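Figure S4 source data
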Amino acid sequence: MEASVGDILIVGAGIAGLTTSLGLHRLGIRSLVLESSDTLRETGFAFTTWNNAWKALDVLGIGDSLRQPHQQLQGMVVTSTISRQPPSERSLKSEGKLSEREIRCVRRKLLLEALVRELPIGTIRFSSNVVSVEESGYFKLVHLADGSILKTKIDGVNSVVAKWLGLKKPDFAGRSAIRGYSDFKCSHGLEPEFLEFLGKGVKSGFPPCDDQTVYWFFTWSTSSQDKELASPAEMKQFVLSKFNNLPDKVKAVLENTPLESIISSPLRYRHPWEVLWGNISKGNVCVAGDALHPMTPDLGQGACSALEDGIVLARCIAEALTKTPCRELDNDEFRRIEMGLNKFAKERRWRSFQLISTAYVVGFIHESKGKIMTFLRDKILPAFLTGVLIKRADFDCGELSILNATASV
């Protein structure tokens, strides 16, 4: 099938892809987003958005619309399920290094819909499964499963693109997660706090989204002896069996969760040294979001960093296209695009390394079973570990302006 031309092609309508597309739109640049599903993907239910994410959302102009339905979390309370130590409490209301701290648990569906609402009609092409990428002079040819071919000047984001760049598939972290979403239809009775429970090799968290809904997660280190959890009913029973001593209000969150709102998945991550030394970009192709830095969820920074990626990538592309683009990609424009994507890679490489590494170490400490590590985690390190989460959120991705193109940390 004859190739059609699109200047900027984004593979995947996830958070990073849609953020990049909207960032480009705000700068007056059109893009085409290819999504393999026939609708927006809502897997994961919700996620914690720290102040670095709100900076990116405000830059996009959609921050206030997402604040309204999501309550701000005032503190973090970490409880050991095996020691008699009182819970470690940390306020989340104080000023951060770069801005006021703001943490909310945002529903994924509402975030994706907010991003899409601001995009021009026709920006997203659903049911477009990319199977391969090949070079054609300065252009890239993107092959779809239906046999069509798209010819593009700039291509990026998705895992298919990561494969073309030579990045390995994310590795299994030796842990799995069960996630759920509970809607009480009335008040759940929890305070606006991020509740976290640690002990016996497992970890769980219960951040409320608003007065009626709570997102929860449960992670554990898996072994070959573990029974496979084939159904949501088994997943729910498994989580309840691990936490007999939870407060009644928290246990009610698990019991109230419908089976259709429970999912399970293995946790995967990219080795941090691959981010440092691997190909994040090559020519006019790059990766962002989970395709760049898949990480364990222990920092709550997966979605936040994807938003950062989108802002930085849109800015770097816009800088490369400041001159009037030609329909036929010449050497000068190709080099400017290449330099723009290299700049993106340079800005995001160390940040991605930090997040992946820190998340892995925090997860290891949280789920360790040894007596020494348990003692350190429960009595010495609680305030330090919470401080690590806060510190990694103190990041400013910068503005959507080619005149102000630096991020701060």
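Figure S5 source data
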Amino acid sequence: MSNVVEQSLVIEDLLRYFPIVAIDTEFPGFLRDTPRHTSDEQRYADVKHNVDGTSIIQFGLALFDASGNQPWPGCCWQFNFADFDPDLSASSPNSIRLLQESGHDLHKNRRNGIKSAQCYSLLRHKLFRGHNAKYITFHGLYDAAYLMKVLTAGRPLPDTLPEFLFEAGNILGELYDLKHVANSCPGLLGGELGLTKLARLVELKAEGVAHQAGFDSMVIGLVFTEMKKRWEIEKAQFVMVLYGVEKACVEFKIKASIERAQRLSSLPPLLQWLPPVHGVVNYHPPANDATISVEQTIIPQLPLPQSSSVVVNYSSPGLLPLPQSSSVVVNYSSPGLLPLPQSSSVVVNYSSPGLLPASDPPFNPVQPVQYYFYSWPYPMQFMHYFT
């Protein structure tokens, strides 16, 4: 608890240059075991029962760039949580014994660890929101579930698996589960193997203590790097497909794609040119009635007061299609102080503390350069696509 803010800021700064994030969690075992060949829905019901009834012990994180480099050799973090009480909390005795044999001091964590109820907003905004990162896990269903619980202030998991996948996708975004990915890689035993054996098969040697989440996350990231050298694994087909519930994940992605296509088909033709993007975008007014240019940018961040608003206002008072001379301006002001025509603006409230993307140097409020959300007369539709 004493250094979680400091280290979260360090990690947030490094994420700009090392956007591949390997993650792992340690938790107190299962209250209810799941049969091997059960349905995806029953498996998730067991996950919800176990995660809702127990508390996370440790979260590990390691950072990499696209070439597999780390900020420095052996770089990883462990977040030790105080939520688990070794004397009172529900647990599996065998799992607790394994963790203690691996060096976990659960009573020290209880005294000095991170209180997730106080730090969930910090962790969510600094480590998981708006960084365009790729998150890598191994056998990651429980890792994703425990992170969802931490990052939503201990709220029970959603009742159904599709609801869980929707919420997890919103927070974790581009998530890869290497145990599922290994199933498509020749020579990796169809993915039916543990992390240690997978590391051995890709000829990776790493020194450390297993079942410590920091070390395990670093191994996951190094394995991902080695797998990329041998196979083409950064494919959309692998994103947000978790081992053990693969069928449900694929069905959810197909359904979401169909629904998105149906929504897009109902929009005016000009809007259908806009591709889904994340982060801040540059908008260039159309050169004619049929073209529009959008480019994604990664730029630094600027602290804003807790109740700040961003006003996105395009200068033409008319509705779409915008004339060729139109521009887009970004104004930053307090809520309610800037009267704007209803047809040409939207106010995006940003009420939670944290950082909001901004340009570098800080934007000039009268200069038509960058903005955060596409928002024409269809604000709710576009908030869904462009976040």
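Confidence is low (pLDDT under 50) at residues 270-387. The first strand starts at residue 20 and ends at 26.
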